[in-house]
Task: structure prediction
Amino acid sequence: MSNLYRLADQRARRRIVSFDRRELSRLLGLYSMRVASGEWRDYAIDFRPGMAIFSIFRHTSEQPLFAIAKVPNGAQGGYVVYNGPRKLAHGDSLEDVLGVFDRKLRLLLG
Result:
């Protein structure tokens, strides 16, 4: 016997994860400040099963310099900032993980 699956039922089970207006505003605000300073040049937003990813590029043709992922489900739910395969920050709120991008003043002796 074969099993019959309704595609509409399968689509309803899949929950689409996306950034809300407040999150996008915060991400694009950070992005625009770094574009103005000449550090970043392009971005992309991807929606994968169970997560939304905001990727930041230095050059359009390269791999993403940073990726900010929203993962609401699972034991590691929340927000994660990646630099390539390295996890830079993990937190429950977007503001917590975006603290990675805060500039720190350093004294340069030379």
